[in-house]
Amino acid sequence: IVSEVKRLEKLRIVGDIAASISHEIRNPLTVTRGFLQFMKRNDITPDKRTQYIDFSLGELSRAEDIINDYLTFAKPTLENVMKLDVLEELKYVKNVVTPFALINNVEILFKNTAEVFVIGEKQKLHQCLINIVKNGVEAMPDGGILTIDLQMINKHAHIAIQDTGIGMNREQIERLGSPYYSTKDKGTGLGTMVVYSIVKAMNGKMNVASELNKGTTITLVFPVVV
Ligand code: ADP
Ligand code: MG
After folding, report:
1. C-alpha of residue 218 to centroid of ligand 2, in Å
2. DSSP letter at 184?
């Protein structure tokens, strides 16, 4: 009975978050529609027109951020589960995030690599890693190096993602993963929540080591398969 209650509780929370997220996405869409309607008028100055376009683009990227960060949380269970080559998936993630990193003067480098396989859903592992790497890049406003380290220790894959950025204090570390907790101007506060949910579904663990103005290392630990 206890586990059933917990499961229902979890579904309720997921439902609540899904509802509030559709609200979060509807807002920017409504605002954008308003601006587009304005622009049909022919008495607006080119300056105003540019301003409306910029507002609309800003609102659309807001909606996109929310979808990108959240995407899989509504379905915390894994579906297309298979054996994944962790190094290959890390290389994929590195390639996906590199343009974003370069814009922010961040270089992504591998430290150790290993041949390890875990069980999971490819897209969700990608989303989880992309959220962590993105946070690492965003934590280094003056640029820097983001290191990815992969090792096999005691039959577990250890994926460590390290930045030399702004870091977090104890309170910030504790709040990490609560829905909508963000210290960024345009943050969604959904990325880490999604990370936790995926790591849990993959029977993994997440460790956070961080020091203010020194940087952060996020380590994911998953059981390996042969
Ligand atoms: P968002 O990135 O949209 O703010 P996240 O859930 O991804 O939402 O992260 C929540 C908060 O956790 C961030 O706003 C930031 O304060 C903190 N955080 C996460 N990763 C890092 C990191 N690598 N360095 C410093 N702070 C971090
Ligand atoms: Mg984030």
Report:
1. 13
2. S
Q: How does pLDDT run across 133-150, given as a tens digit for each residue?
A: 999 999 999 999 999 999
Higher pLDDT, 30 or 71: 30
Which ligand 1 atom sits closest to the C-alpha of 176?
A: 12
Task: Compute the distance from residue 134 Cα to the ligand 2 centre, in Å.
Answer: 6
Q: Which ligand is nearest to the CA of 192?
A: 1
Nearest ligand to the CA atom of 177: 1
User: What span, in angstroms and rounded, lies between the C-alpha atoms of 65 and 24?
Assistant: 11
The predicted structure's pLDDT at residue 7? 61
Q: Where is pLDDT greater, at 23 or 89?
A: 89
In the β-sheet with 156-163, what is the strand arrangement from edge to edge?
106-110, 144-153, 156-163, 215-223, 205-211
> Is any ligand 1 atom within 6 A of the Cβ of residue 68?
no
Q: What is the mean pLDDT of residues 14-30?
A: 77
β partners of residue 119: 83
State how far Cα 50 lies from the chain centre. 31
Distance 114 CA to ligand 2 centre (A): 27
Structure tokens at 151: 């090792």
Give the pTM.
0.83
